[in-house]
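tool=predict chain=A
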Amino acid sequence: MDTDLEVRARVPADIEAPDRIVWGLNARQVAIMATAAAIGYLIFMSADALVPVPVLLALLIPFAAVAVALAVGRRDGLPLDAWLLAALRYRRAPRRAVPAPEGVSDAPAWAPAAAGPSLAVLRLPAQTINDNGVIDLGQGATVLVAAGTVNVGLRTGKEQAALVGGYARWLNSLTGPVQVVVSARRVDLTGHAVRITDAAEGLLNPALAQAALDYADFLLDVAADRDPLWRTVTVACTATGQHGAAAEAMRRAEHTAAALAALGAQTQVLDGPTATAVLTTAVDPYQPTDASWPRTPADHAITAHASYPEAVQ
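tool=predict ok
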């Protein structure tokens, strides 16, 4: 039996960690400490003749402590200077943004002056979503890959080691940023029931059609009494640059789908409508529908069945 086989795979960590220059500090930390030391030295030399040295040192010690904390302190994996920079950007950023790609126009002369914060153009991370699923980020592109889960607990030790090793090989093969999102989302059983009912009308066997209709009724009962959830795994493969980023992101997504499929997971590179559905449900997880059916991208015209003359073309 191999139940006691230790499952271990070597995966590099902190591959994007900055190089250490001196005393275990990186270039950013050395720059902060050197700047603080230079400012403290200038203050000491200019105020030496005006303030007693013990008082001056007592005033410089808190300044040095703040500089050290800013250089070596971290929170949630980010350095404190990054947090301070983000706080300054948030403080200076406008509080009200409107979707106006052509720019915010000035109010007419006859309109009274509106009190309150000024308006700014709403800048979304994603600009467009192509039909093949490439999400244009302006300075890069992202492609989403939907992956299923693999039951590792029921496997033998050798099988678990093989799965972990295969996952580690995929991690080691990455050449760009990748985000793996595991989330629980609401299941739209009503939509599934409607699709099953539509499919039952085309079944030639009356018994199978009746069984499908009974199953649809069961799904409707479950949707009415409970709030079922399902676990989804979405992998976002990103490529940077203005030229060739879309093709590179698609290549990385296809490689990710193939590598995870080799582990036994069901994978699919999402096209434009399906990626739009995933992003829609991610933004509004409390909507009554899920991402199991595609959505029309924002830059596409919405059409309806030809039997409805009032449909918008």
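Helices lie at 27-47, 53-72, 80-92, 157-172, 189-200, 206-225, 245-261, 272-283. Residues 27-47 form the longest helix (21 residues).
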